[in-house]
Fold these 4 entries.
Entry 1:
Amino acid sequence: MSKVVSVINQKGGVAKTTTSINVAASWSKMGKKVLLVDLDPQSSATHSIFGEREFESTVYDVLVNRVEAKQAIYSSKDFGFDVMPAEILLSGVDIQLAAHYGRERLLKKAIDTVKRKYDVVIVDCSPSLGLLTVNALLASKEVIIPICPEYFSLKGIELILDTINNLRTGLGHKVEVRGIVITRYRNRKITNDVIQKVRDEIGVKVFSNYIPDNISVEEAHHRHVPVNKYAPSSKGAKAYAALSEELWV
């Protein structure tokens, strides 16, 4: 039974996409069959993996019912997993699908047609709480929330949790919040105080493996390879490997 996991934070700059692609690459290295769905109109994951490659079909085409999900899946040899790429047209999908019955479950229907081929589907969400993210949540059983303590917002996390609770009560869909991933970590008092505040006030698990502020992660991102291939002995690669093990349990 494959699981579907969304990586979500409506705030930008929290290493959401970097976490999505490197966790997916680590799971692939663990021998898992992985599909990454890029649901961000900025296409950050798509560009990080494939550079400026153009695609005949994307997740946008799937959502507007132009193609079947299997027609919008491409393999990445460097990352070791399959990808359903994004494109800028996703930015207008809220308006385009406004009158579409069942618009909140379009991604779930699409993923359901292909997920049996995979051990896990990971959805890199857009930095918003609009229709795309609601689609991701309704397709998922689990949610991971990356936060950067430097740009931390308690209200931001509470907003995500409120959205999930509204889906549970309004649409009857239960999503498990697996926990919070600390990214761009630097061992400073102010950072550790923020993390302690999250533990004390949010009531959501904080994963024990933090992702350090590590240049190798950024360099790998720009060279279109996972950090575990670019710099396997770096702190960033080791942290993502350990986090991926923790997440898989």
Note: Residues 154-170 form the longest helix (17 residues).
Entry 2:
Amino acid sequence: MGLKREDFAVLEKFAFERRPVCVRFTATRPQGINRIAKELNFCEMLKEAQEGNAFYVTPDDWVCVGVEQMILGIKDPEPALVSGAFGGEEGLFQSASACRAMYDYLPRMQKGSVKYVVFAPVDKLSFDPDLLIITANTHQAQTVLRCINYVTGQPFVSRTTPVVACAWIYVYPVVSGELNYVITGLGLGMQALNIFPPGLFIISIPFQRIPMALSSLRELPYRPTTAPGPGGQEHRRRVNRLLDDIRKRLED
């Protein structure tokens, strides 16, 4: 395994209320991990792992309306879904046309590339993760979301839809190679299942970015509480002093 449990020790300084979770997508049956023993939707599985449980999911364990198998490339899209009829008649969209259009944007795995999905909290990690998923409050997210921007300068953005939010949590980061985040309370399915309270950040970091993210978080300072700023005048004086010093050095 390229990454080890101790590599994730930096996350302990955040004292997350909900454990960070690693996810692996694989075409072969995982060894040394138990199969899930209860019926859960894809989004509920994150909470199950946060509670300390490591497990894997087979093609027979998906219990949602069918989108899970579709976005994982396990099954072909079902006409009742991709036609937009279900979402339109359910009132999730103004029309079937709008619902149908959403499926043009949903990220998906290549067909046949995934058969099993493995979940584990980082303290029980025994595999190379495809995803690191962190559930954070606003204060914690303020630092965590900088973990890529800190090194590359690239902006962080959120891509999601109120329906099939699981596609943006699990699949989009892996197929795009980019960090993504969603805010609880915006996903209609997650809200209906009452998984998380609103206002939390679910931050998904793909394998392409995990080493950089962990390295950055070791450098970035984090304080458990937010101290008030010095105020407008003092802040401006400090910034102006810094700028004056830099300008002088650049003139030399």
Note: The chain has one domain: 5-251.
Entry 3:
Amino acid sequence: MKTYLNGRLVIFSAFYDDVYCDRIFRKLYNQIKWLDKTYQNADGSIVHLPRLTANYGERSYNYSGMVFEPEPWTDVMLELKKDAEILGQETFNAAVLQLYRDGKDRVNWHSDDDPCVGKNPTIVSISFGETREFWFKAKNGMGNPLKLLVEKGDVIVMQGTLQHTHLHRVPPENEKKARINITFRNVIH
């Protein structure tokens, strides 16, 4: 276990072994109802979200002006949710899944500080598939970005004021294979 940013970012490296990761990756890749969403850019053009996405659980989740109605929990999702709740010491009712099909897929700088997740949310992120970079930077512009490598089977717990003080992103990278990331959260609406 490694901690960063005054304990608000905790990483459990290789929490799941390779055999389990490969099995769960295949199940998620084939069983999740992946959505190829579009949104309107500031210039009025319609663009595709640069990854596939899905929402599972009991609550809808909104981001980038889009509302995602949840699919019901699957057995695999419930299994992962149980682990996420133990590590995050929180009960979760929603999961956002992202399928980064290759290194071109990404997520830009953002924070998960929407009022629907409460004041200081705990968010647990689980990754399967390709190793990708995961960057954090202070919202006030102070200091250099923290650049981490997230490997398959890693679990990241983001907690406390982290979503209010920092932004994070998954940048594009050359020659990468598919990666699935799941973020568990408690949506309070």
Note: The chain has a mean pLDDT of 94.
Entry 4:
Amino acid sequence: MKTLLHLCCANCGIFPLSVLQQQGHQVTGFFYNHNIHPYQEYMRRRDTVKEWSGRIDLPVLMRDEYALEEFLAAVAQRPEDRCAYCYRSRMAATAERAAAEGFKAFTTSLLYSRYQQHEAIRAYGEELAQTHGLTFLYEDHRVGWQEGIRISKEMGLYRQQYCGCIYSEKERYTPRPKK
């Protein structure tokens, strides 16, 4: 099946891509992560996807947009709900691109992360699939967490230390009060 795989980053794409290919899918990557902060981090992740995909001969479609202001306007009033916005905006763009380019299915590398809300991703993916006449491929790729880390380290890929948005950066780097 011709499948579009949303890539949040190269590292998170490694394991889902291998599973999809083993299942016989014809996979194309799609990089769209307009919320990553700061811009230098956005560029590192984008460039790492380009490097990785070139090394493994994975075709990747790029929607190269950095839209910090749009992200902040959407989540500033309720930052605790920011993940829902991130899932929805990136997955909607993926489904729209998949439908426009003749793909039969789509999925996301967000399903690899132990830190993401799988049920929310799955529900929204299925909703988008129905809207666009596609199949959303849900699979819990967290089982490959260590394998993906091992392979990305072996490949010498840049490995980010937080999810991507300004709020996750703050959570990662701001000292927490001692209990």
Note: The chain has one domain: 2-173.
